[in-house]
Amino acid sequence: MTDLARIVITGVGLTSPNGNSLAKYRSNLLAGVSGVSPWEIRHFGKTVAGQCDFEATRYQTRKALRRGTRAGSIAIFCAHEAVTAAQMDLDKLGRDRVGVYVGTTEHGNVETEQQIHEVSQYDFDLSFWSHHHNPRTVANNPAGEVTLSLPVTGPHYTVGGACAGGNLGLIQGAQMLQLHEVDMALAGGVSESIHTFGIFASFKSEGALGKHEDPTQVSRPFDKGRNGIVVSEGGCLFAMERLEDAQRRGAPIMAEVLGWKVNSDATDFVLPNPERQNQCMRGAIQRAGLQAEDIHIVNTHSTSTPLGDVQECKAINEVFGDSAKTSINNTKSFIGHTMGAAGALELAGNLPSFQDGWVHPTINVPDLDPECAMRGLVLEKPHKNEQVETILNLSFGMLGINSAVIVGRPPS
Fold first, then answer.
1. What pLDDT is stored for residue 1 in this prediction?
2. What is the Cα–Cα distance from 278 to 255, expressed in whole angstroms?
3. Are 30 and 38 in contact (CB under 8 A)?
4. Residue 323's CB: how many other CB atoms inside 10 A?
5. Which of 99, 262, 269, 330 is surrounded by the fewest CB atoms within 10 Å?
6. DSSP label at residue 179
7. Which ranges in the chain are annotated with CATH 3.40.47.10?
């Protein structure tokens, strides 16, 4: 990357099940506060989920909320918060120089299910079908709603990267900045998954939907008693710029994007391939010009499924097993699986480690599965690292998509 522009993060906007700002989110991660709670959805019944409670009307009118989507509303909230955090004057920058790149797992299911339910109440009289359905369900909706709200006129689209979508949105933003297609990228991921019956029904039919008498303990990566995921909603968008531009305007730089890698398992629809995950991690490390021992925090993807966690831990041990400087944690134990938002939200929760040196733990692991034991695994309580210079963020998804992003301490 020596001949390409250096890319930095200058702002973060997020909403998560346990915090609607980076400060609150981080505080709850260090304090061990879960965001998972009881949830009930039509046709499915009672379950648990990670639910967000952000102030949507801060940036949208009630009319706009009725017309748009939940994913779009999440993206709008995150985008405005990121621009504010980056202290960016969009008029001065040029609104045609802002790109919006939003990772998603899937989009449109919520709106279609809702409309089918609505017309079913009227004997399927399609005069009751909403004329907003098409713009609500097109794949670019969350990113497009952001451009309408800010407003900005640069390129926008979503990146359909399954549960790797949050990382892929960030990678796309970095690449577009290096190509000088834009001067600011709003990039990351969003999820509205808890509002669709289909995703709960599907995970339940696969035997992959977690359960526990205490909702806050359902998501328990690495624990012997883990039995499946928690479906969650959320979002996180990063304001990203070229380093020279950010320094020129005196922007608050939070981290530098050092490297990334995306690859495919090409082996199964659902089951992960640790060999390909290994290659993905090593590819990102190589691109960043680092060695495994140079990585100080690894944020795992692990979702609390019996086999998936073991496969990932195997890959991580093969890459980092000899590294005494690497701390390993997991964010889904706090907020569940935010699907397309996961990569971005989980990276965001670790960014403050560059300033305070603390590594947030994995919670809900009273009985560590020996097959998930990893050197440097941080459990239950925060760990103080003597040095945090680099963070590796892992996100993997169905159909065998793997992503790894490495960020480093802000340049001095």
1. 42
2. 24
3. no
4. 18
5. 269
6. T
7. 7-248, 259-408
Q: Which residue has the tokens 């000088």?
A: 180
Measured between alpha carbons, how far is 113 from 130 in angstroms, rounded to an integer?
12
Q: How many CA atoms lie within 13 A of 380 on its CB side?
A: 6
Mean pLDDT of the chain: 97
What is the average pLDDT across 295-307? Answer: 98
Residues 6+ apart with CB under 8 A from 384: 357, 358, 359
CATH number for 7-248 (one of 3.90.226.10, 3.30.70.1450, 3.40.47.10, 3.90.550.10): it is 3.40.47.10
3 — pLDDT class (breaks 50, 70, 90):
confident
Query: Are 328 and 320 in contact, with CB atoms under 8 Å apart?
Result: yes
Check whether domain 259-408 has CATH 3.40.47.10, yes or no: yes
- Positive or negative CA dihedral for 318, 320, 323, 328? negative
Share of the chain above pLDDT 90, in %: 97
The CA dihedral of 311, 314, 318, 299, to the nearest 10 degrees, is 80
- Residue 211's CB is within 10 A of a number of other CB atoms, namely 12
Known catalytic residues?
163, 301, 337
Distance between CA atoms of residues 194 and 337, nearest Å: 10
Residue 325 has pLDDT above 60, yes or no: yes
Structure tokens at 378: 């941080």
**Alpha carbon separation from 57 to 61, 187, 339 (Å, rounded):** 6, 22, 24
Distance of CA 317 to the CA centre of its chain: 23
Kindly give the interhelix angle for 306-320 and 274-287, rounded to the nearest 10 degrees. 40
